[in-house]
Specification:
6-stranded mixed beta sheet; single chain; Rossmann fold; Alpha-Beta Plaits; alpha/beta
Length: 337
């Protein structure tokens, strides 16, 4: 559905120097998938999503939508092609003086789609039904919660029957419970309408919950990309490790000579690996921290262990753990949570 080829974006700074925000970005996003683009603040995520629909024109490279090169189009052709891409923002961007129904009608008015007002209202009511707000047609944004505002914004984005929904930090302003409901809605829309969803975020938990594949952006460069489960289980780059294992408060309460991080895939997450290590091998380890994550329909686990101070026992523990199917083992230092 979307192909990005050798995309670069430069900005001119106040002193006349150039700043490269995106450097040789290459991505393929399949028709009907939910694809995540994740990175920390300043990684270039918002610039990339604005280059996808050419709100920002790339300095070089190509952006193809359904095989058609947006960067080569004339203004009129580009305006028409952009109807196939809708965008959802962190700040909702609703018109405060318009009701929910009127907000959804607005892009239909601008686009000259099915000019009759009666048709526009009928379509807007259908979309409110889809996003679960059939009773909020006459409510103004000031009368809606954050989650309801975002649902109206999603309905508005769907008004032009887009092939692609670009979600730029669409859940960052929402509380965790509301975030879950919005992510569930995006999954439902992807499933029921077949719309391709591109999720731009700095939150790994968002990617884990709804994305099938992900690209990690850092310093304007794609550091790694692939299946979410693979990258979560075994990040290959420093940027990937920072996102999967974010820094926080250091753990000092359980010192250990050596520490290892275990990642359990969906098949091994429920296995009693540590109990078996203690019973069969006679090796006791400290469990420093443990957590589980849902990625798609599978459960993945993560655990950090303090190995025995005795080097022989530590080596035996590593040999055993690395032989367990579905478990990735990585030595770490100064693990933080």
């Amino acid at each position: 559905m979307i192909e990005i080829k050798h995309l670069c974006k430069d900005f001119t700074l106040a002193d006349g120097s150039k700043f490269r925000a995106l450097d040789d970005v290459n991505l393929d996003i399949g028709d009907g998938e939910i694809f995540g683009i994740i990175g920390l603040s300043g990684a270039g995520k918002s610039t990339l999503v604005r280059c996808m629909n050419l709100l920002e024109r790339p300095t070089s490279g190509q952006v193809l939508l359904d095989g058609k090169d947006l960067t080569a189009m004339r203004p009129k052709e580009l305006r028409q092609a952009r109807k196939g891409m809708s965008m959802i923002f962190q700040g909702f961007n609703l018109l405060m003086q318009r009701t929910a129904l009127e907000n959804i009608c607005f892009p239909l008015e601008l686009g000259g789609l099915r000019g009759e007002a009666a048709w526009r209202k009928k379509r807007a009511k259908e979309l409110l039904e889809i996003v679960g707000l059939p009773d909020k047609a006459d409510a103004y944004p000031s009368q809606l919660s954050g989650g309801q505002k975002q649902r109206v914004a999603i309905a508005r984005a769907l008004a032009s029957d887009p092939k692609v929904l670009l979600c730029d930090e669409a859940t960052s302003a929402l509380d965790p419970t509301t975030t879950q409901s919005i992510l569930a809605l995006l999954k439902q829309l992807n499933r029921d309408l077949g719309v391709t969803v591109v999720v731009i975020t700095h939150e790994m938990r968002v990617v884990q919950q709804i994305c099938g594949r992900v690209a990690i952006l850092d310093g304007g460069v794609i550091q790694e990309s692939g299946d979410v489960a693979d990258i979560f289980s075994n990040p290959r780059t420093e940027a990937g490790r920072r996102l999967v294992m974010p820094e926080g408060k250091k753990i000092h309460s359980l010192p250990a000579n050596r520490q290892v991080r275990l990642t359990f895939n969906g098949l091994s997450a429920g296995e009693p690996v540590i109990s078996t290590l203690a019973v069969e091998q006679g090796i006791k380890v400290n469990i420093i921290t443990a957590d589980t994550h849902s990625i798609g329909d599978e459960t993945f686990g993560e655990m950090v262990l303090g190995l025995p101070e005795d080097e022989t026992d530590a080596a035996r523990a590593l040999i055993y753990l690395r032989d367990v199917p579905g478990v990735t083992v990585e030595e770490v230092t100064d693990y933080v949570q």
